[in-house]
Amino acid sequence: MEELKQSLTRSGWRQEVKEYCKTIIRQQGVDRVTTEDVASRALQYARQRVPDEVKEQLVRRIKDILTQGEDGDVGFGMA
């Protein structure tokens, strides 16, 4: 998970989402905007903005974990 955070930070994604949140607050006014509104809009924006390279990295990581599971290297606590 830390690797994903680092990739998003390096790509500028985290800063871009942070700036988008500030824009929402400025547009609606700090006294009128709700946390729920910022979160809802920012989540939609953030999901759309994840760089393809980061998505591909995450898919590779998931495939690696699943492949290890097929070989019996990773336990999921199931008997």
Automatic annotation (TrEMBL):
Where does it sit, as one GO cellular component term? SAGA complex
Biological process terms in GO annotation: mRNA export from nucleus
For this protein, the record's InterPro entries field holds: TF_ENY2, TF_EnY2_sf
For this protein, what is any one GO molecular function term?
transcription coactivator activity
Q: What is this protein called?
A: Transcription and mRNA export factor SUS1
Q: What species is this protein from?
A: Gonapodya prolifera (strain JEL478)
